[in-house]
Amino acid sequence: MSEVIIAARGVEVRLGGTPVLRDAGLVAAAGEILAVVGENGAGKSTLLRCLAGLHPPLRGRIEVLGGPPVDAAAFWKQIVLVGDEPAWYPGLSVEEHLELARVVHRGGRLTVAEALEVFELGGRANLSPLSLSTGQRQRLSLAMALLRPSRLLLLDEPERGLDAAFRERLAAILNGYARDGGTVVMATHDLRLATATQARLVTLEAAA
Ligand SMILES: Nc1ncnc2c1ncn2[C@@H]1O[C@H](COP(=O)(O)OP(=O)(O)OP(=O)(O)O)[C@@H](O)[C@H]1O
């Protein structure tokens, strides 16, 4: 049996007094891809934030990489969360953002040149991220996430803004990450992406 990377059960979250997650849970092993699905407001993003240690649940038990998730440097060395668009550094180009990620995270799964090629950003390398289209910026966010070493990817609607061809490429990229032993948990509305990655589905239902 592969190493258990996430074990979460009985997770309960209330936001502003309203129940958002009730008895939610999932288990993910090394090398697995999970797709968290459910209607708008079902609590997918909230569950990802709980797994990332950014939101402590009211009840329930969450273990990530053998311990409770904590918003701390050692934890973030192994885990990447791609959610809302990050704040881009003023004055730095696409290529420089990738270089920064590589330097800060010491080494990486991809070189900057490989990341530019895989994420089809070569022709945009010298532009500011703010000059990119929505889908190109999402590709840069994903490139920065996949370039650095990690054991767990938490992706909130990674398909956001991506065209159909790049969604296929993303499936191949995530399959490669999982083949290398990484674990992916993605909240998604794209069942084709879930199918193409042979993801195990975890369905959330709105708690309220
Ligand atoms: N600060 C808050 N106060 C009250 N309710 C909140 C707050 N933040 C989020 N919620 C509610 O929590 C619920 C879950 O939100 P969440 O973003 O986790 O859903 P989701 O499944 O990711 O939705 P989507 O598919 O639209 O991205 C929503 O009904 C939302 O309105």
Automatic annotation (TrEMBL):
Q: Which domain of life is it from?
A: Bacteria
Q: Start and end of every ABC transporter domain?
A: 6-208
Q: Which controlled-vocabulary keywords does the entry list? A: ATP-binding, Nucleotide-binding, Transport
- Give a single Pfam family match: ABC_tran
Any stretches that span the bilayer, and where are they? none
Q: Which PROSITE patterns match?
A: ABC_TRANSPORTER_2
Has the keyword Calcium been applied to this entry? no
Q: Per its record, what are the GO molecular function terms?
A: ATP binding
Q: Which PANTHER family match?
A: ABC TRANSPORTER ATP-BINDING PROTEIN ALBC-RELATED (PTHR42939)
Q: What is this protein called?
A: ATP-binding cassette domain-containing protein
Native source organism of the sequence:
Sphaerisporangium dianthi
